[in-house]
Amino acid sequence: xxxxxxxxxPHSAPTAPPRHAIRILLRSPMGAIGAAMLLLALVxxxxxxxxxxxDPYETVHVTIEDIYQKPSLAHPLGTDDAGKDVLSGLMYGAxxxxxxxxxxxxxxxxxxxxxxxxxxxxxxxxxxxxxxxTDFFLVIPDLALSIVIVAIAGQSLTNIIxxxxxxxxxxxxxxxxxxxxxxxERKYVLRARAIGAGDRHILRHHIxxxxxxxxxxNMVLVISLxxxxxxxxxxxxxxxxxxxxxxxxxxxxxxRGAVSAGAWWALLTPGLAxxxxxxxxxxxxxxxxxxxxxRLKRHHLEKDRSLAIPPRSAADxxxxxxxxxxxxxxxxxxxxxxxxxxxxGPLRAVDGVSFDLRRGETIGLVGESGSGKTTAMLGMMxxxxxxxxxxxxxxxxxxxxxxxxxxxxxxxxxxxxISVVFQGAMNALNPVRTVGDQVxxxxxVHEPGVGRDVPRVRAEELLERVGIGRQRFDTHPHAYSGxxxxxxxxALALACRPEVIVADEPTTALDVMVQAQIMELLASLGREMxxxxxxxxHDLGVVASSCDRVLVMYGGRIAEEGPTSTLFSDPQxxxxxxxLASFPDIAAPDRELRGIPGTPPRLDAMPPGCxxxxxxxxxxxxxRIQRPDDYRVAEGRRAACFLLDPEASHRG
Amino acid sequence: MKGRAAYLASRVGxxxxxxxxVVTFNFLLFRILPGDPARNVSKDPRLTPATVAxxxxxxxxxxxxxxxxxxxxxxxxxYFIYLGSLTRGDLGISYAFRDRSVGELLxxxxxxxxxxxxxxxxxxxxxxxxxxxxxxxxRGRSLDVSALTFSLFMWSLPTFFLGIxxxxxxxxxxxxxxxxxxxxxxxxxxxxxxxxDIGRHLLMxxxxxxxxxxxxxxxxxxSSVVEVFSEDYILTAKAKGLTTFQIIRDHALRNAMLPMxxxxxxxxxxxxxxxxxxxxxxxxxxxxxxxVSAVRDRDYPVxxxxxxxxxxxxxxxxxxxxxxYGWLDPRVSEA
Lengths: 652, 335
Prior knowledge:
The complex is a heterodimer. Helices cover 49% and strands 11% of the residues of chain A. Chain A is α/β, with parallel strands linked by helices. The mean pLDDT of chain B is 82. By secondary structure, chain B is mainly alpha-helical. The interface between A and B is large, with 76 and 84 residues.
């Protein structure tokens, strides 16, 4: 599934190159607004002596009438508790806020960056000691500590900057450490080290370029925190008494009767000035982070937007029209089409897949990664990864179209009649619930009438059947081995005795002995329970030993279909021929193995004609223009290749 | 069960170590920085020379700081005297309220602070979880967008400023009191009337605190839920034919709580900072107000005690969060 998402969203690289990031940033309205807000504050701060109507540092004689004057032409934002112009105070206050923000953030970034890089790059004891040190600072309430330190050390701007900087580095350190750790383990860094690059070279050429953009985004957020911290200290009365800052203006107004005098201008404006700057930095920082680290923001519980569009007329298809004969195939898929959203428009991942599955039969669905095998299977059950949807076709389970079923009825069908053995069972099982409970849950949901104890008893039997044993019912998935988890997944899939079971790469990442055991288990249980099984795999050896029929998939279509023995001995489609030739055969150990040159087409660059044409040694002009239909090769065999067109004179 | 006990022991051990470091750090902080209490005691014009001498002896300020190398007893130093008096719960005597012990002052203030923090925390965690969950589920829709905007704005609003706005609004529109815990000099007919008066004082501070915390919790819950909703086991639950409600209740919630618990713990410092600001705006007589007034009066024993209490409270709350995490996530405690 992970691979699919990568194909579907080609822009989800974990860390985009900086130049790319800046382009995204400028296009995002959030980043542009934030940058503009911050820029305005900066300009005001720099130009304060030129544009401020009064000099707030000048001592003037003040009479009682000057205090808390309402906004007027002479004082656009009124006067404060000392009769001074609020607007001028705000302009000069911007200098302190920004100065403290930038300098404290620089200190914090320097400390945090250094600790993070050393902890991440060195690792080991030094690394864990540094992280303990960071953890310690993380629990100390930082405002309380900065109050204490400033109160003892003295209320100068330097002390305030030093304290805020020295307490604000923890998030940076954690962030930089995890990024350094991940970069350190990347292949190109390991390679550089293997060929003898020194620490200095690796740090400068590999670690820093990956860490600095991240620190830049972090810096913006640290600045906003520093500005907030400064204003809070000043409000509490711990600001530098020799300079004007927004927090201090609020402190004076609040402490000297602005509330009772109703002088909202003296209270609101300094607060809003702080909000302006912090909001600006936060917007900019959020946009930066988004640009550097675009997250996958889709999830499985979004509304399913699949469409039920009946397939093209049956005459177009090489397979017979679907039947409702009770002895007919249990599953009939016709012209299934699936698309994924992408920034450049919808991409077709599955394009007209049709096949039948008979009761008790096992078919193998094979093809390279990215050929659409898993997508087709998930699409059948309307379980597509977020962003994907079925755009056409029919999926008849015992004559009932799954694509047009209302949600409630679809839920009733799922698992009780068609279930899945997911690949990578570690993530497919919920880590915080016991394995047995997850099996019993399926029975509880689909057979609510069986009473309270039956689900547990049946789940225990299932765990026994798949070779786990009932005593491990109450164990969590993390305590299972890889093979055990896969067995648990099979027990889960069998829980409601479904008619169809889809096994998606059930043995990937398991060792060979366990693979054989799992496949044997699946096949024997399938035969015993009379289930139809679809085995999705790229392991042709597994298919040869356990499948009745084979579907070879390429570029979202079925390239060839046939009984396992005849298709393996006499493949018709060039892709099937090359796929089989690339796989070792125990019966013919001397045969030369040949890989398939080239790579499967990307979804956003599908060739107009046959999707295999660019890699096909036998391709001719027609293949590059027109898409081949299915041609019947023999009884129960078909292939989508113009070489098999009986009406065409070859290589015309 | 063995894993659970080991996990418990390691967390408690880490908390104890942190408390020890905090205590030492707190001691050194007040001895190393310029303007240390010893010099301040002698400079405080409000004290008579006799008191200064008494205090100097009382705090053992005439003794070596860390280890006594001169006399035969190495533990006859300021540090060990400090540790000793701490174990007896003796935090010294306030300079500003000269007849009261620091411990007594802190105890009363702590109770008031809890009155402010607990309702606000419970409200904001509950609301934050519900709203964050809804925002994640309805990702990209209007509820989600308004939740994000609210969080962003709350983040940018200094806590004390929000407090001032609410204080202003509460007193001018609803006639709510602007300061303190209870109406001074008022006579109450019954305990309930007294409680109602405290409630009126508590209303706006609690609202301010809840709003401040809410934005943060909502944001955390939202991203945590979005993360969990895109996990493979949610797909499994969906394939099993569970309803969206069942998936959220039985498969998503507990997993989404994990980062939430961690971040609530990490944000405890943020809670303390919020309490200090809200208390000083509304003159709520809690630890925050006590800290601020101790700063104003240069009342070092109270300042030192308040900081120690706040830091230890955060360490203990962190420990609790760790234990809740271990209880929620079997991978941590059963490993």
